């Protein structure tokens, strides 16, 4: 029996745009229509069905639910806030409390309002002022919330910004999902890319990372002043390793891709670690994932050991900020593979904890099969969702993870 510490969070994670549906004021609603891919539309209709989703999570034995509030709903026009939407998200928080579930609230998960994006997005001179204004308003609904994430994967957001500029400059065609390793031609059909998705996402300007860190730290200060919550942000961890001769290139890529973000978490109450797979770096850059039968539905290698690797690197680079695993999972149609992956990942997480690394919880990605930023085929969920009827069907993996939570450890 592998026992985790008392108070360890066991749960699952989602993101508003991927599950709520009809997020019409967000930049991603507009962007996905230009990507030549599938659309989010009603998504999983969780905006209306969140009670059912939280109930299924709680009945399985999980104790924490990470979800995001949508900036574009709360502030549909600059400086104008919707009290109705704030009340909606407060009802979600209250429903978690009523069901013995700890809410982990993310304030910005990839999406921003269309008006914010049109005015220059994160690179606008007043981006921090706009985001902090929003954070101040959201803080009014966070009474009793113990865990708040300011931003989800700012390093991925920075990489997307960098990639979009490179695509435009190099004429590589339409660029699509931040999570799926394929490209599209102008007609929207999948094709081999001139440069792969992962190559584009490998290179991010470290200065953008430092800009994001300043915005995050300002938001953290606001939340600490106005709430009693623990505050951090989440980082997409590549669990990168060096192939022979790739050591220098690894340092170069990891600086802009991750390390400035781990460093930006110093002084936080926790850092969210999000790991799915591992990849090598040689002298030329990221090495493509090898073609193997157990590769995931998003094209990445089956690497449950990536979680332990990521937590160790986060601990080192953040200077010992406690880790909360805010995302870990696998895109697969084989739920037995999902259970096997999670069990191996949790064993690696426990090994890291045994070596003295502070780990606060494990939130599986994702609670639901959802919209993967331009794609519906990759299924990460513990619960299947019929896209026509929205009927939820729990998978064996939900009961399995709930059993782990009830035991507070692996059998």
Structural summary, described in words:
This protein has 411 residues and is of the alpha/beta class. The chain has one domain: Glycosidases (TIM Barrel, Alpha-Beta Barrel), CATH 3.20.20.80. It is built from 14 helices and 18 strands. The strands form 5 sheets. It has a 9-stranded parallel sheet with strand order 8-5-4-3-2-15-14-11-9. It has a 3-stranded mixed sheet with strand order 10-12-13. Strand 12 (279-282) and strand 13 form a beta hairpin. Helix 7 packs parallel to helix 10, helix 12 packs parallel to helix 13 (335-354) and helix 13 packs parallel to helix 14. The model is unreliable at 183-197 (pLDDT under 50).
Number of strands: 18
Query: What is the class in the CATH system?
Result: Alpha Beta
Tell me the span between the first and last alpha carbons: 5 Å
Count the domains.
Answer: 1
How confident is the prediction overall: mean pLDDT?
92
| CATH architecture descriptor text | Alpha-Beta Barrel
- Side by side, the strands of the main sheet go 8-5-4-3-2-15-14-11-9
Note the quaternary state here.
Answer: single chain
Fourth-tier CATH superfamily name: Glycosidases
The Rg value, from CA coordinates, equals 20 Å
List low-pLDDT spans. Answer: 183-197
Q: Structural class, please?
A: alpha/beta
Strand count, sense and closure of the main sheet?
A: 9 strands, parallel
Number of helices: 14
